[in-house]
Amino acid sequence: MAVIELKNINKYFGSGTSRVHVLSDVDFSAEKGQLILVIGPSGSGKSTFLTIAGGLQTPSSGDVIVENQSVDQLSKKQRDKLRLNHVGFVLQSYSLVPYLKVKEQLEFVRKVKPKGNLSDSELKDLLAQLGITDLVNKYPGQLSGGQTQRVAIARALYANPEIVLADEPTAALDSARVVEVGKLFKELADTRKKAVVVVTHDTRLMEFADKTYEIMDGKLHLKNTAEMGQTSK
Hints:
Helix content is 33%, strand content 27%. The mean pLDDT is 91. The chain has a 6-stranded mixed beta sheet with strand order 6-7-8-3-9-10, sandwiched between helices. 36% of the residues are buried. The chain is globular and about 50 Å long. It is an alpha/beta fold.
């Protein structure tokens, strides 16, 4: 059963002759236990797709359903609660608080969401898997781009969301770290039964995906096995 659905989504920016059709009649669904990639170049509508899927942005038309709730029919407070309890975001901007150490970034999650997070032992394992155990006392300004990205992933996953939405989570990572993140997302889907949706231009993640979609000029379509084989060559 789908935990997140997009039905006939359209999104426009601007008006008149400058209006841009960013997403065009997009239909999409994700179930628990699936790792889904949405592949596309810069400017294809990937980030807009992801933020609409997570209720951070409103579509021009169409319906977004998260955990059987139509997001459009919820108040702002209800949307915030839905995201807090069910959706974990890994955004390109990372959104780390600059004056908080890594461990304090995680403590902040616990203050905002006191229940339902990973246990201390699970968090320890997650930090080790991402290779950031030794960074817990550093500030964001002391981290490299790849380290910052991995901390942002850890912060999102610490809240133990049922739906994980990640925007270019491997953009700053070398191939070895891409494999680690791919395995982590796959484990979240297979073992912990999360719905994991990753928008990216990084085809190195395709080997871990249960489904791969391509987005181009705002149009989304499911790639078949033959297409995936050609893309990964």
